[in-house]
Structures are given as structure tokens and as C-alpha cells.
Amino acid sequence: MHTRQIEIECLRYDPERDEAPRWQSWQVPFSDDMSVLQGLQYIKDHLDGSLSFRWSCRMAICGSCGHMLNGEPRLSCQAFLRDYFPAKLRVEPLQHFPILRDLVVDQSAFLDKLASVKPWLIPKPNPAPADEAQRQTPRQMAKYYAYSQCINCLLCYAACPQVGLDSGFTGPAALALLHRYNADSRDAGWDQRREVLNAEQGVWGCTLVGYCSEVCPKGVDPAHAINQNKVNSTLDYFGLLRLMMPRGGDT
Amino acid sequence: MSAGRPAPRAYVRPMRGWWRRNPYFVRYMLREASALWLTAYALTLLWGLWRLSQGPAAYEAWRATLATPLAIGLHAVGLGFVAYHAWTWFRVMPKTLPPLPLPARAITAAGLAATGLLTLLVLAWLR
Questions:
Q1: Residue A106, C-beta contacts closer than 8 angstroms, at least 6 positions apart
Q2: Which one of B1, B9, B28 has the shortest CB-CB distance to A115?
Q3: pLDDT tens sequence across A201-240
Q4: What pLDDT score was predicted for residue B101?
Q5: With an 8 Å Cβ cutoff, are A231 and B7 in contact?
Q6: Taking all residues of chain A, what is their mean pLDDT, rounded to a whole number?
Q7: Do A91 and A124 share a domain, yes or no?
Q8: Three-class secondary structure of residue B51 per DSSP
Q9: Of B57, B100, B107, B125, which is most buried by a Cβ count within 10 Å?
Q10: Structural domain count of chain A
Q11: CB atoms B95 and A99 under 8 Å
């Protein structure tokens, strides 16, 4: 089955021994249908059991196996070794995150940012009775559906230089999810999310590099979510948004 | 909440030279830098206006300065940067608009076509 060998070079870091990360490479036999994740698993199973990396579903759903592959943020399960052969493949932990060990990064700052946007439906003051359906038309659903596809894989954070330059920047995925809920006709949480959105480290921290939308494996387009909200944020500053959205949050 | 929980000796990579790591970032920096050429050209025109206020001789001297090979060369480079700026500006335009029932490429193409048309109209009017 394994007909060819590819060199996979990983950035390694052992917090108990290393002062700084170092490179280590292996020759990995592969077949045409092997993903980069399977290449890493081959290393762990057959060549070096100490290599640490995150993974779960193997099919671009869980968002766990994001790495820098030759400098590009990608899901390792969605990239194939055959596409990098015969050159060597460099695997690094996602950029702009602290490295905990080998390819494993510290996600805790992102999780705090995610919680800060209140990524859940905040119902209107007088909601429909609990046993009644919350009706939504296909057109209302279309306003947020693409943004609800986010799997929190953090590729967009690794693609965004502003995240690396300012660790306080709320960042692409969290701001896209903020917009996902603000844009939902069942939600009335604009007032509770406006402080995060309007902040200098909210939508205004974005300089529209646009790479976040390029690397998103789910077509979420965070750059679009953020930049259309610069208009909303400006309207809110001048007190005009409330006039345009009498129902609150139903953009 | 996880804030304040220190990661055990986590390694933070430096950002130095970040924009050279990816061709996408190089193009982004060129886009941002092109604004400097736009500023320089606006200042050149303002300088001309100031010279005009000093009389016909001063204005002609300003025009003569712009006719030197160095000035023409700088203008040619400036034109390149301004064209790149316009192209990138319309490329990111779909990201700044509310969702429209149009593909992003159509918005970019329409913007570039409008710019080209307006440029031709101005050139025709100047002749």
C-alpha cells in the first residue's frame, strides 16, 4: 500500500526540557489516500510516541486538528500528503497561540473571547409561550446560517496578524459568532453584545487583511461578518441603529 | 472562565517579520503602503495649488519641476501603486457591504468597471 515516503518536519516543544521549540523530521511512508493527520498518527504509532497533537473526528467536523502546514493554517484531516510530495512538509502549531507542547496550543484566551460575545440566543423580553414554536422564515435564517457553520477550529485566528499583534483583539471566529446571534430574528441581545462589538478590540481591531475568510474550512467568511458590523457600530455610535432596528438585533 | 490560569511554561512565538511569512500578508502590506503614494500625490497637487496662488511664474516653475524625468518616473510608479490600491479596494469591498444577492466577483467587477469608465470620461474631458 505504502509506495512513497515523505519527509514530515514538526516543530517540537517540551515545556519541561526545552527553552525554545526545535525542529524534528521523520520519513513517513504514505499512500495516496492518507491525510496529513494520518501522517502524524503514523509518526506517533510507529516512529515517536512522544509527539503530541490534537485530533478527534478525522472528517473536518470537530475542528481539533488545525496546524500550520508549510505556513498555511489548515485542518490536518483535510490536507493530503500526496499534495505536498515530493517536497517536505513542515507542520507547526497554529500561529498566534502559545505552544503548550509540540503541536498543542493554549486555547484558553480564545475560549474567554468566545464567552464574551454571549454565543447563545438571548430571547426578547416577552417571548412566545414556551410550548409555542419560534417561527423563522427561510429568508430570516439565511441572514445567519453561514456564520452558524463555525466549528471553532481557530484557523482564522492563526491567519489573522492582528490576533498575534494584539492578544486582546476579540478575533475573527468570536466576532463572526457575535454577528451570527445578532443577525438571528429570534435574538434580542444586541444591547448585551454591543460593548464587545463596538470596542477598539472588537470590530475596530480588524484591518481587513481578509486571510481569515480564505482559510476557513466551513466558508464562514468572518471578514464579512466583522466589516459589515463596522457600519452597524458607527450607526450605533450616532444613535441611528436603534431607529433602523426597532425590533432590536434583527439586522 | 479560564482567564488568569497560567499555562505551564507555554512558549509564545515572536511576531517579528510576520508580514514576510506569507505572500498574502506581503500583498496586504503593499495594499496598505499604496496609501502612502496616494498621500504623496495629494500633497503634490496641494503644492501646485500653493504655487498657483503665488502667481503664473511660480505655477509654471512647479509644472517644469513635474516635467523632469525623475518626477515622471515617480508618477509612473505612483500610478502603479494607485491602480493596485483601486484594485484591492474593490476586491475587499464585498466584505464591507451588507449581504447582497450578488456574487462578490460581480461587485468587484462593477466597481472596477465604474472606475475605468470615470477615468476615461475625465481623460476625454481634459483633452
A1: A97, A98, A99, A100, B7, B10
A2: B1
A3: 999 999 999 999 999 999 999 999 999 999 999 999 998 8
A4: 86
A5: no
A6: 93
A7: no
A8: helix
A9: B107
A10: 2
A11: no
For residue A131, which phi and psi values (nearest 5 degrees)?
-90, 5
Q: Residues with Cβ < 8 Å from A205, sequence gap 6 or more?
A: A162, A166, A168, A169, A170, A199
The verdict on A88 and A204 lying in the same domain is no
Last residue of a domain, one of A58, A81, A105: A105
At which of A35, A70, A105 does a domain end? Answer: A105
> Tell me, which fold does domain B20-126 have in CATH?
3 helical TM bundles of succinate and fumarate reductases (1.20.1300)
pLDDT at A249: 44
Q: Which residues of B touch A108 (CB under 8 A)?
A: 2-3, 5, 7
> Which residue among B3, B5, B95 places its CB closest to the CB of A210?
B95
Please check whether residue A249 lies inside any domain of the structure: no
Do A120 and A236 reside in the same domain of the chain? yes
User: A153 and A59: one domain?
Assistant: no
**Nearest by CB to B96, which of A209, A213, A227?**
A227
Nearest to A210 among B12, B13, B92 (CB): B92
Range of the domain at A184: 108-244
B14 close to A (CB below 8 A): no
Residue from B22, B88, B97, B102 to probe the interface with A (highest A Cβ count within 10 Å) = B22
What is the CATH classification number for the domain harbouring A183?
1.10.1060.10
Q: Which residue of B has its CA nearest to A108?
A: B2
Evaluate the omega torsion of the peptide bond into residue A86 and state whether it is cis, within 30 degrees of 0. Answer: yes
ipTM above 0.90, yes or no: no
Tens-place pLDDT, residues A130-145: 677 788 999 999 999 9
Give the span between the Cα atoms of A246 and A198, in whole angstroms: 19
Cβ within 8 Å of B, A 34-63 = none
Average pLDDT, 10 consecutive residues per value, chain B (127 residues)? 64 95 96 93 95 95 95 93 93 90 92 94 92
Please indicate whether, in this complex, the C-beta atoms of A98 and B1 are within 8 angstroms of each other: no
Cβ B10–A99 below 8 Å, yes or no?
yes
Q: Measured between alpha carbons, how far is B107 from B92 in angstroms, rounded to an integer?
A: 10
* Same-domain pairing of A73 and A13: yes
Q: Between the CA of residue A238 and those of A72, A108, A231, what are the distances in Å?
A: 40, 35, 11
